[in-house]
Specification:
Length: about 70
């Protein structure tokens, strides 16, 4: 009964969730990994996306030269 009386007198305190680390340096999504961006891991869609990214980058660099 001692615990029960202590709860009645003081109430129940709940602890918050544990805090996450700010940044552990890991890449969390496939889209940001180097092999995925360049299409080097063998996926056809990733290779196609890499081709489009390269074309877009080339367009932007050509605009800057003008």
């Amino acid at each position: 009964m001692d615990d029960f009386e202590k709860i009645i007198e003081n109430g129940i305190t709940f602890k918050g969730a544990p805090k996450k680390k700010a940044d552990d340096g890991k890449v969390k999504t496939k889209a940001k990994k180097k092999k995925y961006i360049t299409g080097a891991h063998g996926s056809g869609s990733a290779k196609q996306k890499a081709k489009y990214r390269e074309q877009r980058a080339n367009r932007k660099s050509q605009r800057r030269k003008k």
